[in-house]
């Protein structure tokens, strides 16, 4: 499934800082714009993987997975 997320980024003095709008807690700080975008992508992937594993663990044994389109 190919999904798109929105990065909000800005330069603050010598640092670039950014957040992913749709996922609370995904934020990073790096010394360059390119490094920030890489870090945001990696952190977003880790957060989604963690949330997926946590949801499946909480669901137990008998569950359904259904796509929800917005």
Shape: elongated
Write down how many β-strands occur, each being a DSSP E stretch of 2 or more residues. Answer: 3
Largest sheet: 3 strands, antiparallel
- Residue share in β-strands: 15-25%
Helix content: 25-40%
Instruction: List low-confidence stretches.
Output: none
Q: What series of H and E elements makes up the topology? A: EEEH
Question: What is the rounded distance between the termini?
Answer: 14 Å
Kindly report the spatial arrangement of strands forming the biggest sheet.
Answer: 1-2-3
Structural class: alpha+beta
Number of helices: 1
* Mean model confidence by pLDDT: 95
Radius of gyration: 15 Å
Protein name: Type II toxin-antitoxin system HicB family antitoxin
Organism: Candidatus Accumulibacter proximus
